[in-house]
Design a protein that fits this description.
The structure is a homodimer.
Chain A (H helix, E strand, L loop, with lengths): L4 H9 L11 H8 L3 H13 L3 E4 L2 E4 L1 H18 L4 E9 L5 H4 L3 H11 L8 E5 L2 H9 L3 E3 L2 E3 L2 E3 L2 E8 L3 E8 L8 E5 L4 H4 L7 E7 L2
The structure holds a DNA duplex.
Chain lengths: 214, 214
DNA sequence: ATTACTAAAAGCCGAGTAG
DNA sequence: TCTACTCGGCTTTTAGTAA
């Protein structure tokens, strides 16, 4: 029989981790949104299994409960405070050259300058990545959003950007266009400079992108 | 229908808060310690209620789940990081005078000096407290431990100490001897000075002890 | 391999109520 | 007041199994 999380959380909120608290089974029931009978039964069970104890002054959580809850707290914290940075590896590919079209569009350019402080080189460096999940992690994060717009009857979608360092040398941004022509295995990077030239990259070269998830 | 905590915690531990994770219902079942059929049913339910979603790449937690879990995380953190100080009130009593025997023992004295920076007055101030729960709170905390030892065939137990301020004036330590002769209603305090003299205390006088729980 | 349905058994819930 | 028992009804579980 596992622990009754709802009960433990209610007891914790009542302060039963540091002192005996006086809580009638009826009061407990209302906080748990169950009947008085059920809260009474749950409490008896929790006592039997060593999660809670009752004394003259009321209820309190046992050391066993506290250990368990503290562990849970750490698990939760670890999950939520997880990675602020990630490193993505892949190799340079040629791609469709469409970055050369959309990156220099005035509306995108204006927003790149305003939101990223970047006057981008007109084009993207395309990287085929090994770990596709990495792109999914980015897709989930907030990043900086460049708004979409219409241009000459064409709809240009929004772009999500993440600051990054290419080969640990040059600053740039990983961009995730909402209407990308690439799949999950290709990452697009923009920078002030022509990355291929500056880093002497050619198709097939291995590159490392250190991305800040902020 | 409330959320299924066990399921959410297992999914969180699997990393489903930041990406799709591939987990068969059988694998999930073994982690949840339920049958495959039950894990399948729970998952369907969680999906229906908007706690989890399934894509081609596996399972992941929804925003709704993350919001809920983050809130829970904060509750837990708040509970565990709670009070760093507490105030205990009571009145001076005479006690058994046994502090006069054990406080000055060289081994205890050495540790008091080393661990607390204290050369204690040979004796304890005994206080009958109104709120017995306060002592239980202390017993639960770590404090500073003075190790036990043997002396002339007698076993002297370990002592847990908490820095305190008596009457908001004089520094000292609340001590909790593991083999105390007192019950939960009596607190023993040591200090560099003779507290009775310095604060002009006599039996029955009200005192306030501000304890640092660290 | 996998998921999820059926159906019977097991377990849980809460109204009623005793102490 | 309060807690916790009984017991009929309802829900959840899991073995078996189909897809």
């Amino acid at each position: 029989m596992g622990m009754n999380y709802s009960l433990l959380f209610v007891l914790l909120r009542a302060g039963a981790h540091e002192r005996y608290v006086r809580l009638s089974t009826a009061e407990l029931a209302s906080r748990l949104e169950v009947s008085q009978q059920t809260s009474s039964r749950w409490l008896i069970q929790a006592q039997k299994e060593g999660w809670a104890e009752r004394g003259l002054n009321g209820l309190r959580l046992t050391q066993k409960s506290l250990t368990e809850l503290r562990l849970l707290c750490e698990t939760l914290q670890a999950s939520f405070e997880s990675r602020k940075k990630t490193s993505i590896k892949g190799e340079v590919i040629s791609g469709l050259k469409d970055g050369r079209y959309y990156v220099p569009l005035p509306e995108y350019k204006r927003q790149f300058k305003e939101k990223l402080g970047l006057s981008p080189y007109p084009g993207t460096l395309n990287i085929r990545i090994q770990d596709m999940e990495a792109k999914l992690i980015l897709a989930d994060r907030k990043g900086v959003t460049i708004n979409g717009f219409s241009h000459q009857g064409r709809v240009l979608g929004e772009i999500k950007c993440f600051p990054c360092l290419i080969q640990k040398k040059i600053k740039g941004f990983v961009i995730l266009p909402s209407r990308s022509h690439y799949g999950l295995d290709v990452l697009e990077v923009i920078s002030k400079t022509n990355l291929r030239k500056a880093l002497r990259l050619k198709d097939g070269d291995k590159v490392e992108i250190s991305v800040s998830l902020e």
